């Protein structure tokens, strides 16, 4: 098994990399990435070399070429075994040959056999691919260029090794040059990165076109992330013009349209979150989860971040549901499953405190097989939340298993830390009808996980139909598989081939209607005559990374928000006690004294907690919104008097100005 990335010998030894140049062209929600990598054989004998590189799971390679000396070869697509035979024949006859193929274990890893590299000779490898940009919780569109291939754990029955070395930060002897050109139908607000950038350069007054470059001297020792921000929620359609050299009627001979949309469901439907379901939290406890989640100051280790997130999830679950926590590594442990109550929540929280990265290698397949073998509970839809740093070698087997069980299990996935496999994380969510999130750099895991919980608690969406209204003389042939699931506030992309009168594409008559059924009530959720941007698509590239993490820092004091969350009861209420007063910045006596006389202490404590959240933690509302909903429901169920008086007294005590309507009371 190949355990590193880049140009390596058949003995798994690296060939020196001299330079990397990357050009990125972003148009709307799609990026074309082009990379050129320069290598040199510094040995005294010829090398048979292999180029190993990762790609996003959804990426499509559109061009590949390799050059040794003055000989350049441009790849063509062939059946795998036929291509291997031709490569072997060329080598045996003394010719230079190149073979590019997808890894048998994971669809996001490609291998290129470049044949014999003479002593002192240089090799240039150029690769272009196209990929969709992932939408983040803050609506940013994310492109990731992984630096090196993260070590992938191979199951022991395959003869794999659980430990492989990685590249220490700062030891990379080459730098990366990267430039990006961004075009959008809507004004580009800003472009951000986890690496230093040169200033953003707008190319027009509308700010719909811009260029940006990575600051000079960047060492490519970790993932490079680019995020750009625009009005992502506006529906758009982008048309790729037909190639003039292609035959009309062929895939490249006719235009292709990509439609981006964000359906908006009726408020009365979306306000009714489900109280049913079986929620399974599947947490990676392999040794790699002890690494820091990022290399910056104050970084928490991955398993610690997972523990905090589990606390938030357990406090946010609705009364009446069922839940379980499964930890996995070389083996797996299942805590329950049980019905959600105060008693079971307390038991789970105690177990969560003891979770460590102590289960060896990363073996996801076996715990998933165990989960799928258990019968589902009646009227309790099963939903999986998978947390992992994505370091496995049998991705295809995992995705096949998830797909086979997608009719009864919905999967949400979270890639933690640098170098998580996009094929695994995105593939699990795609095959399981859920949503994928990546937690990298300075990202907080909690808001992204709570966004997915919001999706999981939404009403079921079924019977989705799409109707294209096109001008006379134009026909549309869908290229995308049917939409299986739509979430409020999540992008959906549709692709279609357009034939006929191409000039009619920008006609205001062309529009799209989408109908769905919510609880068997048909709702028209989308009608748009989208803004059209016509362009000719050009190709692109990318790689992936791992680095040695510094020693874990000592655990800091618990964040006040997490401390408040930890004090909430399963019912949604808080108890008037010293730990709550400490979070509020008061003594227990100061908190108890202004309580209106007829009000129960628990109601008073719960109102104070809500006022504090809305008064001081609005920037983190996505993290605590479900806790607040539970608290409001509990207060209303008590039919308590003087709630308005409580809120006024709470505002006076805490120095806030929160209105009763804001709290939902």
TrEMBL record:
SMART domains, per database record: VIT, VWA
Superkingdom of this protein's organism: Eukaryota
Transmembrane segments: none
Pfam families from the UniProt entry: VIT, VWA_3
InterPro entries: VIT (IPR013694), VWF_A (IPR002035), vWFA_dom_sf (IPR036465)
SUPFAM superfamilies per record: vWA-like (SSF53300)
VIT domain boundaries: 1-131
The VWFA domain, residue ranges: 278-457
Protein name in UniProt: von Willebrand factor A domain containing 5A
């Amino acid at each position: 098994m190949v355990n590193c990335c880049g140009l390596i010998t058949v003995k798994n030894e690296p060939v020196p990399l001299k330079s990397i140049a990357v050009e990125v062209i972003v148009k709307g929600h799609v990026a074309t990435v082009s990379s050129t990598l320069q290598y040199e054989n510094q040995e005294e004998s010829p090398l048979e070399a292999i180029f190993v590189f990762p790609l996003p799971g959804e990426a499509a390679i559109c061009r590949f070429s390799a050059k040794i000396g003055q000989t350049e070869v441009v790849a063509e697509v062939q059946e795998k075994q036929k291509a291997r035979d031709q490569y072997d024949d060329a080598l045996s006859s003394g010719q230079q040959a190149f073979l590019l193929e997808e890894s048998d274990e994971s669809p996001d890893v490609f291998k290129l056999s470049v044949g014999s590299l003479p002593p002192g000779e240089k090799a240039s490898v150029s690769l272009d691919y196209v990929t969709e940009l992932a939408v983040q919780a803050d609506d940013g569109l994310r492109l990731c260029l992984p630096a090196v291939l993260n070590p992938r754990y191979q199951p022991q029955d395959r003869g794999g090794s659980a430990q492989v070395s990685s590249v220490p930060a700062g030891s990379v002897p080459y730098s990366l040059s990267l430039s990006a050109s961004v075009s959008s139908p809507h004004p580009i607000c800003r472009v951000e990165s986890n690496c230093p950038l040169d200033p953003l350069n707008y190319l027009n007054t509308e700010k719909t076109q811009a260029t940006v470059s990575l600051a000079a001297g960047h060492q490519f020792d970790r993932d490079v992330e680019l995020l750009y921000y625009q009005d992502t929620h506006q529906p758009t359609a982008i048309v790729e013009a037909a190639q003039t050299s292609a035959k009309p009627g062929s895939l490249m001979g006719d235009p292709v349209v990509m439609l981006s949309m964000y359906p908006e469901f009726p408020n009365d439907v979306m306000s009714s979150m489900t109280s049913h379901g079986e929620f399974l939290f599947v947490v990676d406890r392999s040794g790699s989860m002890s690494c820091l989640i990022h290399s910056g100051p104050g970084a928490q280790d991955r398993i610690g971040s997972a523990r905090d997130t589990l606390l938030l999830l357990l406090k946010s679950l609705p009364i009446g549901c069922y839940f379980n926590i499964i930890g996995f590594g070389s083996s797996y442990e299942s805590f329950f499953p049980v019905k959600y109550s105060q008693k079971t929540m307390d038991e789970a929280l105690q177990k969560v405190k003891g979770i460590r990265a102590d289960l060896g290698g990363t073996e996801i397949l076996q715990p998933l097989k165990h989960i799928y073998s258990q019968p589902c509970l009646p009227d309790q839809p099963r939903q999986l939340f998978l947390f992992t740093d994505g370091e496995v070698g049998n991705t295809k087997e995992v995705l096949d298993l998830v797909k086979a069980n997608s009719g009864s299990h919905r999967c949400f996935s979270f890639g933690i830390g640098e170098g998580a496999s996009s094929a695994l994380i995105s593939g699990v969510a795609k095959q399981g009808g859920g949503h994928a999130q990546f937690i990298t750099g300075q990202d907080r895991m909690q808001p992204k996980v709570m966004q997915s919980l919001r999706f999981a608690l939404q009403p079921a969406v079924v019977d989705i139909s799409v109707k294209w209204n096109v001008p006379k003389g134009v026909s549309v042939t869908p290229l995308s598989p049917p939409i299986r699931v739509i979430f409020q506030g999540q992008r959906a992309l549709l692709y279609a081939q357009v034939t006929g009168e191409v000039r009619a594409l920008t006609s205001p008559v062309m529009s799209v209607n989408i109908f769905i059924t919510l609880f068997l009530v048909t709702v028209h959720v989308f009608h748009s005559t989208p803004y059209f941007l016509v362009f000719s698509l050009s190709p692109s590239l990318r790689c992936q990374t791992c680095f040695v993490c510094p020693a874990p820092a000592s655990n800091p004091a618990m964040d006040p928000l997490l401390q408040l969350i930890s004090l909430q009861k399963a019912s949604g209420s808080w108890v008037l006690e010293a730990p709550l007063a400490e979070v509020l910045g008061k003594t227990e006596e100061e908190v108890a004294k202004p309580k209106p006389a007829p009000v129960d202490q628990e109601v008073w404590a719960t109102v104070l907690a809500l006022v504090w959240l809305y008064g001081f933690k609005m920037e983190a509302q996505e993290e605590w919104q479900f806790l607040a909903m539970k608290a409001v429901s509990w207060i209303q169920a008590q039919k308590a008097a003087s709630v308005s008086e409580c809120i006024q007294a709470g505002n006076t005590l805490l120095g806030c100005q929160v209105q009763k309507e804001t709290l939902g009371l």
